[in-house]
Write a structure and sequence with these properties.
Blueprint lengths: L7 H6 L13 E3 L6 E4 L22 E6 L2 E6 L5 E5 L3 E6 L6 E7 L2 E7 L6 E6 L4 E6 L5 E7 L41 H14 L4 E7 L5 E7 L3 E6 L6 E6 L9 E5 L6 E2 L9 E7 L5 E7 L6 E7 L5 E6 L8 E3 L6 E3 L15 E9 L16 E12 L12 E2 L5 E6 L6 E6 L6
Parallel strand pairs: 21-25
Antiparallel strand pairs: 1-2, 2-28, 3-4, 4-5, 6-7, 7-8, 8-9, 10-11, 11-12, 12-13, 14-15, 15-16, 16-17, 18-19, 19-20, 20-21, 22-23, 23-24, 24-25, 26-27, 27-28
Length: 438
């Protein structure tokens, strides 16, 4: 499931016929969960970012969003929208140190990378990227950008254009997400999800030479970190360690060992997870807020047993938190203090085929203790087991999951911010994690 960004027309295509905002409630108490939900945005087509893109201003009061008019900040207390740059731009993320907005703008057939100071509104052009290059992440001290370069022209009819990476569009689904008319050997039309897998497989089979690079924000110098004919994608810098990159081998998850780490100097290339059974899958990886752990969706096998798995960078220690079919989520996220997780659910056609999975969730990790306080002699080298206790926050029964909600915790840990077409048009919402007072 690649980290591709969706063109705004497709965001709007996932909405019902246009209706006045008066028909979209401003806020409500979810009758099924007892939690307060607030629509933050006024303009239809306003969307929050992908689940691992840092999007909060340094004061913790606003979130960066995209809209038909461009990139803006949205105060989730006052709901005030502050435009930043126009619609010809594509967001990368906010810087964690300065809060600068990093984005790209197309110049001819290439992308140029810019930063914008939220304090002065001064725009700075960092560099023009080489052809077929894209940038998708900013490191913790805002000295480097990370990106990928496709070093050869894709074959004719390639479904994944080179500039479809994290900065190229404003949501993680692209033209490849559109339903096609491809038929299976028994004559039936492949489902939407199956067609996506087949398109991923075709791109993987192309074996295009690629490289991961860093771009010096001060000088514009580009340095190659890692090269491969694997499909390199989903780049993320550690939120704390400026020299630590994570990336994936993209493709159908059961066909690849997806999760990898590498230092910005190219050293310490590490495979985070190795598949041990056919149809085992792992992906949608993200760093913990303290940068010490990589968390990821693990299924053993695909669509049957569901885990949120963790890998500690310093020690290699592993943990697995089990959850049931309905609680499986397209994306998970961690609270700022690392004590809770969120999940954005999924529909019945997705990998879990959950009969009742269209909810936003708050998860409490609960370790499984030793029996009678007796530890196995080798317990320290084994995977630490646990379960995720699920609390439902928002009923998403009217949400079209072709638009992934991508829920994220606010910096104070009191809310989840998410995007949804619950009421037809795409908007940005917040849900309080504490139940509403009765």
């Amino acid at each position: 499931m690649p980290c591709l960004r969706l063109a705004l027309p497709f965001v709007l295509a996932l909405t019902a016929p246009a209706s006045a905002n008066a028909e979209v409630p401003r806020e409500w108490i979810d009758a099924d969960t007892g939690h307060r939900v607030v629509r933050l945005s006024d303009e239809p087509g306003t969307s929050s970012l992908y689940f691992h893109q840092w999007s909060f201003t340094p004061d913790g009061r606003s979130v960066v969003v995209t809209s038909p008019k461009g990139i803006a900040t949205l105060d989730f207390t006052t709901r005030a929208l502050t435009p930043l740059v126009g619609p010809d731009t594509h967001i990368i993320q906010l810087g964690r140190r300065t809060g600068s907005v990093y984005f790209t703008r197309t110049e001819g057939e290439q992308l140029a990378v810019f930063s914008l100071s939220l304090d002065t509104r001064t725009e700075h052009r960092i560099a023009l990227l080489p052809p077929r290059a894209t940038v998708s992440t900013v490191n913790a001290d805002e000295t480097l950008l990370g990106g990928t370069l496709t070093e050869a022209e894709p074959p004719a009819g390639e479904l994944f254009p080179p500039n479809s990476g994290a900065s190229a569009k404003n949501t993680p689904q692209g033209e490849w997400m559109k339903a096609g008319n491809e038929h299976a050997s028994d004559g039936r039309v492949f489902t939407f999800a199956e067609q996506k897998e087949r398109r991923l497989a075709r791109r993987l089979a192309a074996r295009l030479p690629m490289s991961i690079f860093t771009l010096d924000i001060a000088t514009g110098e580009l340095r190659t970190v890692h090269s491969s004919t694997d499909w390199l994608n989903h780049l993320q810098f550690s939120p704390k360690d400026p020299g630590q990159l994570m990336f994936c081998h993209e493709g159908p998850w059961h066909m690849v060992d997806r999760l990898w780490l590498v230092r910005t100097d190219g050293s310490s290339l590490t495979k985070v997870h190795t598949r041990t059974m056919n149809m085992e899958i792992a992906g949608h990886e993200f760093f913990s807020p303290d940068g010490r752990t990589v968390w990821y969706d693990l299924q053993t096998p695909r669509g049957e047993s569901f885990w949120l798995a963790g890998y500690e960078l310093a020690t290699g220690a592993r943990s697995r938190l089990q959850l049931d079919r309905n609680a499986w989520s397209v994306h998970y996220n961690s609270s700022p203090d690392g004590t809770r997780f969120s999940g954005d659910g999924g529909d019945a056609e997705m990998v879990a085929h959950a009969p009742d999975g269209k909810w936003l969730y708050l998860f409490l990790p609960t370790p499984i203790p030793d029996v009678a306080e007796l530890s196995a002699p080798d317990s320290g080298s084994l995977i630490r087991p646990g379960v995720l206790r699920a609390e439902r926050l928002v009923n998403m029964k009217t949400h079209d999951y072709r638009l992934e909600p991508n829920a994220v915790f606010t910096p104070d840990g009191t809310k989840l911010i998410f995007r949804s077409n619950l009421h037809g048009e795409v908007h940005v919402y917040a849900v309080d994690l504490a139940p509403a007072a009765k």
